[in-house]
Amino acid sequence: MAHILIGACSWTDHAPFYPSTYNSARMRSQRISYYAQFFPLVEVDSTFYAMQPERNFKLWAERTPEHFTFNVKAYGELTWHHRDDDKRVVTPSAETFERFTAMI
Questions:
Q1: Which residues contact 19 (CB under 8 A, 6 or more apart)?
Q2: Which of 7, 58, 63, 84 suits a disulfide with 39, CB 3.0-4.6 Å?
Q3: What is the pTM of this model?
């Protein structure tokens, strides 16, 4: 039998979902903890746009329950979505695959 999880794309958006106190700069970093009380999964959308520092993954893991699932979106270059200054597709490099793997 399939196991289906439901969550959102990113926990940083969807401001109406959060109590107003989570809109303050001081509490924004805690949104993932609040989100994880209601959903078992979230897509990490930011990894499509930029390689994220290791500390981000550590903090996200610390702020969520043990069995919480992060669906990490592939970096755009790896999915042939990045373009150079001349609007040509950037071919994924081995180095980018290695950096992405090390990131997660």
A1: 34
A2: 7
A3: 0.82
